[in-house]
Amino acid sequence: MNNLGKTSIRYALLSLCSIFFILPFGYAIYTSLLGKSDIGHWVGVAQLTLENYTDVFVNSDMTVWYFNSIVVTLGILIGNLAINTMAAYSLSRLNYPGRGLIFFIIIGMMMIPYQVTIIPIYSMIVKLGWLNSYQGLIIPFMFQGFLVFLMRQFMMSIPKELEEAAEVDGLTKIGIFFRIILPLSKGAIGTQIIFSFTGTWNSFVWPVTLVNDSRWYVLTVGLNTLKNRYFEWPNLTMTGVVLLTLPIIVVFLIFQRHLVQGIATTGLKG
Hints:
Layout: H1 3-32, H2 51-58, H3 62-93, H4 99-110, H5 114-128, H6 134-138, H7 145-156, H8 160-168, H9 173-184, H10 186-201, H11 205-210, H12 219-229, H13 234-265
Helix pairs in contact: 1-13, 2-13, 3-7, 3-10, 3-12, 4-7, 7-10, 8-9, 10-13, 12-13
């Protein structure tokens, strides 16, 4: 079989896999457009309606939940981009005593199950008086060990010669970070954005543990209450699923090429 035939088979298989993975979301969209009398039946496009989306926003605090999710996700994302990236630069490009120990500690943190840390973090949040607050939802997760590791491994692959040439031209370490390292790390930064956004946007365990006031619910917690309220109406439940999933798809489509580049080049050196 020639290369053209192998390529065609490969793309055909990938297309089938794509359809297989898209079908559940397609079903969720279809169900979310069904009227209450059409639940459990296949209907034509003319009978589909956006009424469920209107009902969800009118009869629940969906707008508040969306706003809270956006604030929390952007807060954690900005913190991750700043703290994780600078930490990675320090661990990959600067020489100072204890650098290896700090990196070893970060790797060790990655091995601790997330569930183990919930009780100590919750105790600290209670003592600080941060229950039902944005700072309680955001600050504990502004640093992510895995994302520091990912960024460090990527920065280790950037040639030292570029940094040395910049130093000859008079750039300081801060100048090198902003003018050399960051522009060359777009792939890893895009990957970090996807991981940080999806992980935060889909987070449920911590928000449901910390928040007991519906005014501070994020989307995942709010939709869980929606599911309990409308369990007999799967069309309304699926409407919530679609509203939760769409932002993730948009972010992934925007940064997908950076994800491929970041994953492909991370860990080539170090």
